[in-house]
Amino acid sequence: MNEPETIRTILEKTKTIAVVGLSDKPDRPSFYVSKYMQQEGYRIIPVHPTVTRALGEKAYPTLDAAFAAEGKIDLVNVFRASEYVPEIVKDVMRLKIPYLWLQEGVCHEEAVSWAEADGILVVMDRCIYKEHARLDPVSQ
Question: Do the domain assignments include residue 24?
């Protein structure tokens, strides 16, 4: 977890990111981080129970609904409180999504250990925007 090669692999192999907790409010970190990733060429799928659209994309109330409608999801990026991580990890494992990213301040060692034991590459307590910008300084 959090090894430079794990971060690089996830960012290089990911095309579609389901963002759990993506707000439709431009001043929220989930919005501007996801907007940056979208501008960098990633497909963003918003997952939020009270949002209908964000960043020009249809939002889904659950990860299951997003997966059923969209099909392939490469990465789940989590902007939820750490207490919600175990249920999200169970969904990621069940849906066989290969990568999981827990944003800064989102931590759950036990749930991450389940994901890693299931073969999922995980980054925890890191900002995907900052890591992408650090690896690709030309895009800043």
Answer: yes
Residue 69 and residue 80: Cα distance in Å, rounded? 22
Predicted confidence (pLDDT) per residue in 48-58, tens digit: 999 999 999 99
Q: Which residues pair with 45 in a beta bridge?
A: 18
- Which residues form the domain of 122? 1-53+114-140
CATH code of the domain containing 125: 3.40.50.720
Contacts of 139 (CB under 8 A, 6+ apart): 40, 132, 133
Structural domains in the chain (count): 1
Q: Is the full-model pTM beyond 0.90?
A: yes
| The pairing of beta strand 99-102 with beta strand 16-20 | unpaired
The C-alpha atoms of residue 76 and residue 88 are separated, in whole angstroms, by 9
Q: Which residues contact 97 (CB under 8 A, 6 or more apart)?
A: 18, 67, 73, 74, 75, 76, 120
**pLDDT, tens digit, for every residue of 32-86?**
999 999 999 999 999 999 999 999 999 999 999 999 999 899 999 999 999 999 9
